[in-house]
């Protein structure tokens, strides 16, 4: 990893840092809170991008919980957890794409003021979490997946705010659908990236164990 001369020795020490554990707990609580805020707000605003972001918050809360469980485990199990998270991220993206198609077919225009207000609140939360986790972005696949989730969320929230302004300005549903598609793309691309790194780390750890046998 960047700034580290090995993958199996340096990354675990960094992963088990008390600061990283504390950051994960804070991120878990904030993401769980924002899930409820966005799922309720998205229902009232009828915004597919807010619903997508709410599901993303729920997925991230689960991801942080998994990360906390495997902090002290071997590289193989941390990579396995990251693999599951990568699959979840990609699956989430596919779900959002399906939701975008469905919302385009129905054509319901969301309420831009509520949509924008919740988007700003979500952005503040995600920027705070992303700054907290920035130090750990070059760790193993498990740590990298945590950082990517936070980064993607901050980008998605900026897009939601722009979408709200665009919906208000144009009076159409298309900006909301476009943002939902962007969130989907981030989920799929980041998920595939994490899956690739996690599979590589699993094979590396298995090879190390076999060489010692």
TrEMBL record:
Subcellular localization is given as: Membrane
Question: GO CC terms on record?
Answer: membrane
The domain of life for this entry's organism is Bacteria
Q: Which UniProt keywords apply?
A: Membrane, Transmembrane, Transmembrane helix
Regions that span the bilayer: 23-41, 61-79, 86-107, 113-134, 154-171, 177-195
Among InterPro entries, the record links this protein to: Cation_efflux_TM (IPR058533), Cation_efflux_TMD_sf (IPR027469)
Just give the chief location class: membrane
Q: How does it sit in the membrane?
A: Multi-pass membrane protein
Chain ranges of the Cation efflux protein transmembrane domain: 24-198
Q: Name one GO biological process term.
A: zinc ion transport
Coiled-coil regions listed in the entry? none
Single GO molecular-function term?
Answer: monoatomic cation transmembrane transporter activity
How is this protein named in the record? Cation transporter
